[in-house]
Amino acid sequence: MPGYLTKQECIAIAGAPDLLIRSLLDRQQFSDPLGEAERLGISSASWPLFGLPWPSGAQLAARMAVRPLLAGERILEIGCGLALASLVSHRRGADVTASDCHPLAAGFLLENLRLNHLAPMKYRHGHWGAAERPARADGAAHASADVAGLYDMVIGSDVLYERDDGGELAAFISLHAESAAEVWIVDPDRGNRSAFNRQMAALGFGMHEERLDQPVLGCAAAYKGRLLVYRRGASVPAAGR
Questions:
Q1: I need a labelling partner for 185 at 20 to 30 A (CA). Which of 108, 157, 206, 208 fits?
Q2: Is residue 84 in some structural domain?
Q3: 1 SS3 class
Q4: Nearest to 187 by CA among 142, 129, 229
Q5: Are 135 and 161 in contact (CB under 8 A)?
Q6: Are 98 and 86 in contact (CB under 8 A)?
């Protein structure tokens, strides 16, 4: 037994076939026997958050399901968690790399690729604000390399969940964004959006936002949030192109 409980469920993505997803059973799950998560600054309270499906992740996946594919484009998902947007993009044939700082994210992605009969895809460890990943307690090598290189598009959902006075997230995005890269962030109206907008502007990113509010639709819960679209050194058109 891995020390935590999981479940499998079909997750509906607007504009795309459903995804069969293995996730944690609930927010009470926790297992960090080697202290890997603790050394990465992941508390026991936040430990299970990566492994749960969140409404903003489904919103981002739905937008990626209908976005035109561009030849040669490289996409990076940051803070991917269960990586719904990456899975949808990968299934469509996009060159996408999922990334997260949680030590179990790569394993869950591997299993969800298998459940959906998808070929392997790229995964990287992505931890903004961490200059160096701490060594594992057992001395073993880390299973995934760190995010490196430049991407034409950077995407993320619900990544503005805590204050970031030092602008570490914006700096991480800027570090890995091509000179004309587009950045899509789905945010469920958290209070850190304004500060992030200022940090992105200081790095030369123009911004456009779009409301994503949806009422209760059948079995689907209501959603309130917005899609933030950034592009460096240029005005930003409405998302969806």
A1: 108
A2: yes
A3: coil
A4: 229
A5: no
A6: yes
Pure H helices in 12-74: 36-39, 55-66
Report how far residue 207's alpha carbon sits from residue 104's, in angstroms, rounded to the nearest whole number: 33
Whether residue 241 lies inside any domain: the answer is: no
Q: What is the per-residue pLDDT across 164-209, written as a single tens digit (0 to 9) for each?
A: 999 999 999 999 999 999 999 999 999 999 999 999 999 999 999 9
Q: Which two tokens stand for residue 167?
A: 């602008």
Distance CA 31, CA 53 (A): 19
CA distances from 6 to 50, 58, 110, 171, 233 (A): 13, 19, 15, 34, 44
Residue 190 within any structural domain of the chain? yes
Which residue carries 């492994």 as its tokens?
Answer: 51
Q: What average pLDDT does the segment 207-213 reach?
A: 96
**Pairing between β-strand 16-24 and β-strand 6-13 as defined by DSSP bridges:** antiparallel
| Residue 108 · residue 7 · CB < 8 Å | no
Domain membership of residue 1 (yes or no) is: no
| Containing structural domain, residue 105 | 6-232
- 165 CB neighbour count, 10 Å cutoff: 8
pLDDT digits (tens, 9 = 90+) for 56-91: 999 999 999 999 999 999 999 999 999 999 999 999
Helix (H, G, I), strand (E, B), or coil: what is residue 201? helix
